[in-house]
Amino acid sequence: MDALRKTVGRIAFPALLLVMLTIQIFPIIWVFISSFKTIDEFRIGSSPFALPKSLYFGNYINAIVKSDLLLYFKNSLIVVVFVLLGILVLSAMAGFALEKLRFRFRKAGLLFFLFGIMVPIQVTLIPLYQIYSELNILDTYTSIILPQIGFGLPVSIYLFVSFYKYVPNEVMESAVMDGAPMYRLFVSIVLPMSKNILVTVATLYGVFAWNEFIFPFTFLHSKNMLTITLGLRDYVGNYGMTDWGATFSAIMLTVTPTFIVYFLLSKSIISGMTAGAVKS
To answer: How many CB atoms lie under 10 A from the CB of residue 119?
Structure first.
């Protein structure tokens, strides 16, 4: 009976993983393959799952020519850089203070930040719109950078607090006994030890900021301020007519940077996510 159970487990678990993997990567593979189809291969009557008859790279040229894709890339890149700077600087310092410094209401402060995880983005859109309108910062980078930093802080602070729990206090005590001030201790000793968690948070929220749609859709109006996710609407023409070849090509160009970043940094991401999970 035990042998049968082990055999079923050896077969069922890989089969389940294979099904989950297929469900996750099939849409990406399908979009990638479809990006090489000609217009005739998208016409009614053609099977959407058929392979392209040849590799037609004209869709990628059309994706760049027919839309201000490079402008949207630049806007998204600016937003991602400032969102990551805000999240990394604030969450690293807040996590260090909440875990390593001793002061009143320290635990209450952590709970206050964690409460932000439960706040839905949608309920903040109208109040934020009114506030930004009063401050005259609608349709600016600031209007989409600030809320993304705010909503990214709860989880990133939690990750930093979890990591700092396993940074030995003896290391910091030695630095303090040598006369190192607190900012020097944080910058010269703690931050270099936090490389994996910095990479993890930067990758997670870099991908989120790159793919963000709700805040740009709500707060941006000018075409020259649009981010890459909003720019994909350029391929939808009058009466809903869509150039599917160019659209799929633009989608592939949009998601490729996030794939490259993830595969290059995957080891550091996994190390950062599992930091502190096992006691030494």
So the answer is: 12
